[in-house]
Amino acid sequence: MRLVIALPFVWLGVFFLLPFALVLAIALGANAPDSVPPVELGLSPKNFALLFTDDLYLAAWLTSLRIAAVSTLAALLLGYPMAYAIARAAPARRPLLLMLVVLPFWTSFLIRIYAWMGLLDENGLLNQFLRWSGIVADPGTLLGTEWAVHLGIVYAYLPFMVLPLYATLEKLDVSLLEAAADLGARPFAAFLTITLPLSLPGIVAGCLLVFIPAVGEFVIPDLLGGTGTLMIGKVLWDEFFTNGDWPLASAVAICLLVLLAGPIALFQRQQAKGLERRT
Amino acid sequence: MRRARFAFTMLGFGYAFLYLPLGLVMAYSFNDSRLVTVWGGFSTRWWSALLANEAMLQAAWLSLRIALASATAAAVIGLAAGYALARARSFPGRGLFGGLVIAPMVMPEVVMGISMLLLFVGAERLLGGPDRGFLTIALAHTTFSVAFVAIVVQARLADFDRSLEEAAMDLGATPWVTFRTVTLPLIAPAVASGWLLAFTLSLDDLILTQFVAGAQSQTLPMRVYSSVRLGVDPQINVLATIVVVVAAAALVLSGWLTRRSA
User: Fold this and answer.
1) Residue of B nearest to A9 (CA)
2) Range(s) of the domain holding residue B213
3) B260 pLDDT exceeds 60?
4) Distance from CA of A71 to the nearest CA of B (A)
5) Which residue of A117, A150, A216, B159 has the fewest CB atoms within a 10 Å radius of its CB?
6) Quick check: is B89 in a domain?
């Protein structure tokens, strides 16, 4: 047993925990473009100070949080009825309905985002349809706007919202709803007082699974967003790959980690609680 | 029930939302026109173009090899982690251990990417290796896939009848023999689906790979990304079609296998 614990413990310690110490160390250093790697070690907080004083970075933080929050809400509003419908479908059909939600997740993330590029382009299929049908005579371009980023996040992370919601809604005891109906509650009142509170763990898990990765998202704002949609994941990427400023990119990573520590801890506690209950 | 009707309408809308973009990409992989938004008649020219695209094929081969190696390593480590979480109720550092196992699942990939790169750069300076490429990519993919295998294994062990293990022990089997002859066969489907998940995640990963890959290695997602950045490309439509068909086939197959074994 000791070996069984030691193998993953040591692996994750070396490849997951230790690297964060390195990121912190580098974040306190300075950019040195002429050396390899381009870092001069030090103990200066100036990279962090820059992140909290420069308007560009502040705007990127706020944009990331706003886009992630709005997209999470949109995914919840679409995902909840979907999960509800699957949980209420005939038991024999549920696996198929669920598989249809999960299937896109098994294809490629990159390709799924790419699929929207051709749709949202200025002369893309969506605009062609809008012009042809006469709904909108002169539609603007969606590609390169924040709308496109929202759409991409909801599209990419919808399965992560539906699955935990389905897991809680499926276990819901239908006799509670029948009791409420017998006692004269209207369906909507019964939904608000019984179904919604009982599905809260699923709502929390689904929202965290969408929100956390969305805040640090890179591919979606890069491919669907424009130069105006500055998200923090993209800032980190550009600082690292385009500007070659490793210390500043490391400081962004540390801040992102601190920002998401709360939601991540909440998610872990919920995960652990859910599994413990089953053991 | 009106509410249920609303939910089923939303379900239909959700499926349309999920599948319409993929369906259009697949249809346009047979488009004769170079302009990806104009239909120019049926053609398989982009299919032949992709299958003759040496760079793309090489990238695909590298990606497959990395996925195979990292999924297998992640299955072993994830099995150990899931087993420890489900069966070892208390040991020093269990809280940290549980956190470490789950955290990579939700860690933003850019953060993991930069941290692993710094680890490999540090190792290069102190130990002289490993060279960035196949090995570093596989190590990175293994690390973030462990969580997914561990979760599936732990969930399976939590559902499972412990009296079978206890009976084996009562009959004199050592813990190792019990694990090999009782536990492992019962959780094998969970390990297999964890392996498949790890394989898919590795095959698809762009961000982590971009950070830890050296100058020489180009995986499939890296190639796709550099092509897609410049705009829509008919060859990528073909690749998308292949990926969707393979994923659907794999999912149907695994569903069929689980139903047969259940």
Assistant:
1) B97
2) 43-261
3) yes
4) 15
5) B159
6) yes
Tell me the shortest Cα–Cα distance from A34 to chain B, in angstroms: 16
The pTM (predicted TM-score) of the whole model is 0.89
Please tell me whether the peptide bond between B130 and the residue prior to it is cis, using omega within 30 degrees of 0: yes
What φ, ψ does residue B31 adopt, rounded to 5°? -85, 135
Residues of A in contact with B122 (CB under 8 A): 22
* B16 occurs within a structural domain: no
Contacts of A216 in chain B (CB under 8 A): 108-111
Whether B124 is in a domain gets the answer: yes
Tell me the ipTM for this assembly. 0.86
Q: Total domain count for chain B?
A: 1
pLDDT in tens, A13-31: 888 989 999 999 999 988 8
Beta strands in chain A (DSSP E): 30-31, 39-40
Pinpoint the alpha helices (H) of chain B.
2-28, 45-51, 54-87, 94-106, 109-127, 134-158, 162-170, 175-178, 184-204, 207-212, 220-228, 234-261
Distance CA B160, CA B10 (A): 36
Domains (ranges, CATH) in chain A?
60-278 (1.10.3720.10)
CATH number for B188: 1.10.3720.10
User: Which token pair is A266?
Assistant: 């909440």
